[in-house]
Amino acid sequence: MIVRRWPKSSDSGAFVVRSTCITLIGAACVVFAAAAFADEPDTSGNLARQQLNRVISVLKLQPAAAGATCLQALTDMHTTEDQVKQLRTRAKDPDLALALDVLESDYENAHELCGADARRVCSGSEQAADLSSACSRMRAN
């Protein structure tokens, strides 16, 4: 039998700090996974994916700026990418076209939701050179 101890009032500060740290670590992991996706060469010519790559390059420099909706959109996109990979291994799977349409929508959703976070980062007054460069590339959409 597992007995969980509720935090005492004196422990609540430590509990909040631990919860915040866990959330930030999770956000960083998703953004860095998306950044690995962004580092892949885009041979498809897919405009939505190219735009998302530019947004992710900004968030890669400021991972804590990615909000919950952005992180969920990236998670959904990765799930769909995995499904597309599985469907591509099957010969002439009729679901592949549908999965590719869903993936295109996921790219667009992630671009829209994460783009808001990236634009917020880029609206800051003082920026490092690498962030300024990434923001300029993103604005060139």
Question: Can you give me a brief rundown of this structure?
Answer:
It is built from five helices and no strands. The chain has helices at residues 12-39, 47-61, 68-89, 95-122, 129-139.
3D structure, described in words:
This protein has one domain. It is built from 5 helices and no strands. The protein has helices at residues 12-39, 47-61, 68-89, 95-122, 129-139. The radius of gyration is 19 Å and the shape is elongated. The model is unreliable at 3-7, 14-22 and 35-43 (pLDDT under 50).
List the helices and strands and how they pair.
Layout: H1 12-39, H2 47-61, H3 68-89, H4 95-122, H5 129-139
- Based on Cα principal axes, name the global outline: elongated
User: Radius of gyration from the CA trace?
Assistant: 19 Å
Q: How many DSSP-defined strands? A: 0
The major β-sheet equals: none
Low-confidence stretches: 3-7, 14-22, 35-43
- Helix-residue proportion: over 70%
End-to-end distance: 56 Å
Coarse structural class: mainly alpha
Average pLDDT figure:
78
Helix-strand pattern: HHHHH
What's the tally of helices?
5
Question: Domains counted in the coordinates: how many?
Answer: 1
| Percentage beta strand | under 5%
Oligomer: single chain
